[in-house]
Amino acid sequence: MEGFSIRTAPKSQKRSGSGTQIILGLAFLTSISRPARSSTRSTGVLIPLYTHPTDGSWSEVVRVHASHPLVPIIAVINPSNGPGGSQNPEYLTGVRNLQNAGVTTLGYVYTNYGERSKSSVESEVSAYKRWYSVNGIMIDEMSNTQGFESYYSALNGHVKSLGMTHTVGNPGTVVPASFKGTLDCLVIYENSGLPPISELQRYRGHAAPNSAYISYGVPTLDTAFERASAAYVRWLYITDASLPNPYDTLTSYFSAEVATLDNGTSTTASREPRNPDRTLKHHGRNQRLAELEPRASRRRRFVSTGLTT
């Protein structure tokens, strides 16, 4: 399941999470550092923050992180399905505010399952560094087909050569063992609803330091599940927002989600609940978000503001 962007996936690239492929010890080439003040590993929150910097969601992330500084937070920004054609001053200010608050920022790029030219992706990576000085890059629409390992390793190398330190790949499902070490962290589950703990347990002992899951369309936060799942992944994000775009708003229970991961002593914050009339849309467990809304439609939706989610 890929859903950081919304594109139509080539059928040859669609993979079921129930297959025999597994992630085996993906090397943490450069450990994704956290702004936490603790010497022990803490599961953090990986937010597809595809909102506008001035709509209140970015400041909410800053506020909640200030209340729970022991919980690491990564925010993925996405000005226009990538960095856009020029620097956006509002994004620049927003990124600086996040970083000053201790939030790690990543810029969004997509690879179309390895079909985009490496030079095109690298150009966008360079633009993120030049315009926004983000801490790293989130690579969406990542292929999980053998033969693309060198493609992603090269992108990882390009990111690091520019002085950025973090790479996250989003295949949205399991990948072959040959992808070991291509990127720092992989999103191994992205879908509506919560992943079965048994699925996350498959990676215990070797993937937890560098794996993540993202669940959307979850109307209420199950804190017991969140705590249990945190034992098996390094990063997670659960949101009550649902299709056609679960990332155009911050989850209404963001404060509680972060507080649940806080093993230290800090204050908690609250937020008004989301509109109760929002309906939960269920889809097949391994159905990709890309199949549900084409990128072109999404672009038209935000063309007037330049906001892409």
Q: Structural class from helices and strands?
A: alpha/beta
Strand order, biggest sheet? 1-2-3-4-5-6-7-8
Q: What do the pLDDT scores average to? A: 78
Helix share, percent? 25-40%
Distance between termini?
17 Å
Largest sheet: 8 strands, parallel, barrel
Query: Care to count the β-strands?
Result: 8
Structure, explained:
The protein has about 300 residues and is α/β, with parallel strands linked by helices. It has one domain: Aldolase class I (TIM Barrel, Alpha-Beta Barrel), CATH 3.20.20.70. About 25% of the residues lie in helices and about 15% in strands. The chain has an eight-stranded parallel beta barrel, surrounded by four helices. Strand 7, helix 6 (about 225-230) and strand 8 form a beta-alpha-beta unit. The longest helix is centred in the middle third of the chain and has 15 residues, at about 120-130. It starts with about 45 loop residues before the first strand and ends in a 7-residue tail after the last helix.
